[in-house]
Amino acid sequence: MNNYFNSGLNDEEVIKSRKKYGSNSITEKKQNKFIDFLLDALADPIIKILLIALAIKLVFLFKDFDLFETLGIVIAIFVATFISSLSEYGSEKAFNKMQEDASKIKCKVKRNGKLEMVHQYKNNGYNIVLDVNSGAVHVVDDVVYDTLELYEDNTLEEIIEKLEEKYPDYSVREAYSEITELKEAGQLFTEDIYENYIDSFKDRPTVVKALCLHIAHDCNLACKYCFAEEGEYHGRRALMSFEVGKKALDFLVANSGSRRNLEVDFFGGEPTMNFEVVKQLVEYGRSIEEANNKKFRFTLTTNGILLNDDILEFANKEMSNIVLSIDGRKEINDLMRPTRNNHGSSYDIIMPKFKKVAESRNQMNYYVRGTFTHNNLDFSKDVFHLADEGFEQISVEPVVAQPTDSYAIREEDIPTILEQYDILAKELVKRKKQGNGFNFFHFMIDLNGGPCVAKRLSGCGSGCEYLAVTPWGDFYPCHQFVGNEDFLMGNVDEGIIRNDIVEEFKSCNVYSKEKCKNCFAKFFCSGGCAANSYNFHGNINDAYDVGCELQRKRVECAIMIKAALADK
User: Fold this and answer.
1) What are the start-end ranges of the E strands in 189-260?
2) Residue 206 to residues 198, 277, 378, 498: CA-CA distances in angstroms?
3) Which of 84, 105, 365, 517 has the smallest number of Cβ neighbours within 10 A?
4) 557, 525 in Cβ contact below 8 A?
């Protein structure tokens, strides 16, 4: 007996099964009109008896003058037929809706022991097909799109029969042939070759390549959604000393193996509140690069309140990237990002400074980063506002908050947010074609190879390749775990003392998460954020469900944008 649950059917078995049992497709049935159900209801035997009684009463109406009894029969017939018709109509409508929803669910089928995944969808007038395992993207016409939906579960002749009302025979045959050619060329229904790779990936030596230095556990804003509790991170306010930062950079160099390019993000709180130490650490980092065959890429993340010409001059010289925090329109930004003690509008303070940063860096190597919440579900307007203010590198991301928070994204918000992404994607295409476009961080994907396999499988590398360092030198898997003592990994003096945490994060990948295994977006999001998974489900191998819904939509929009910009 074949172990179908483990290996699936092979090609020969699929053909035999179809011949014996038929295809695994649902027969489509057109929705009847309400009048059809009304006529069917009139054929009911009880209704027929009432109609005969009514006819008799009408014959003798003028003789007996029994108007009320006659009207009673009329009302009885009307109520009985209407309610029966309405019930049947509603039931069929619900069933057809269920069929429609079911048709959108794509089965992931094992063939010859391997998982094959194809995702197809429509967006902005484009029929898009993604072969998940190979990453191949195809923009197809209607006949290929509809044929493809039936391809795996039907013979050619069955497909022709099912589509005969929409397309001529020869069109379906051509479409079927094209799909078969793509399959044979390894661009459709390709096998998953990465699952076996993951074991060797988990067994690789740990190499640290990036640090998030918490230069300041303090902040001069009082952002309502701040996961860091206005910079305190569930602990105490503190500034990192040069000595602690120096030890952190030494640790990075010592544990980076042969990797040459190392990433260091000056983070907070607000790092400009401790900018002298930032400058000292940059100077120290540069001083040890040549001797250790390393190159530091520094990033500054700032709210801009203390930003001035001296800081900007230094940043433009030494920082590979600058992240500028602003939420969009003035009223939206100031609602969630107020100054301490409400000392003026944070928007008014930072906007002119941020414009200066963008222009001074020639609209490259920076981005303005905002957060949208339940309070601004029309966040596309905030993106357009930032673009209209002259910013070309933009990121506006959904807040991650507990359901009890008033500003948290709720399940019922998802349809609105998905619509906003569509609006945003269409406008971005329009502006790009007009020559006044901008980049939106979540729509920037590489379809020509993209990140390495390890990156696609495991994501950001938090807890093993990427660590956060507190002002007093403690190591955590990333900035979102800081303050959670269960994830305290070590410190700059002793190094990593919790290797079990390292191993746990090394084992976190798209195959360790059940929700990721059959998701078409898994190689684009790499399993999502481990911190979000932990905060919502208590472990890092789950997934933040709301975030997943939004991520899938962003991937679809990003691919559509690629298709639209290639369509001259």
Assistant:
1) 210-214, 216-217, 238-239
2) 14, 29, 43, 13
3) 105
4) no
Measure the CA–CA gap between 18 and 153, rounded to whole angstroms.
Answer: 8
- The CA distance from 223 to 226, in Å, is 5
Element (H, E) at 306: none
Q: Which residue has the tokens 């229904």?
A: 189
Neighbour-count burial of 289, counting CB atoms closer than 10 A to its CB (0-12 exposed, 13-18 middle, 19+ buried): middle
pTM for this prediction: 0.78
- The answer to whether residue 353 scores a pLDDT higher than 80 is yes
pLDDT reported for residue 1: 31
- The encoded tokens of residue 377 equal 């579900």
- Max intra-chain CA distance, the chain: 118
User: CA 303, CA 106: separation in Å to the nearest integer?
Assistant: 43
* Residues 273-292 pLDDT 10s: 999 999 999 999 999 999 99
> Is the C-alpha dihedral spanning 270, 271, 272, 277 positive or negative?
positive
Instruction: Give residue 344's region: left, alpha or beta (phi > 0; psi -120 to 50).
Output: left
Peptide bond into 473 cis (omega under 30): no
Lowest mean pLDDT among 16-20, 35-39, 73-77, 365-369: 16-20
pLDDT at 177 over 70: yes
Rounded Cα distance between 18 and 9, Å, is 12
Chain center to CA of 448: 20
CA distance 523 to 551: 12
Phi and psi at residue 192, to the nearest 5°: -80, 110
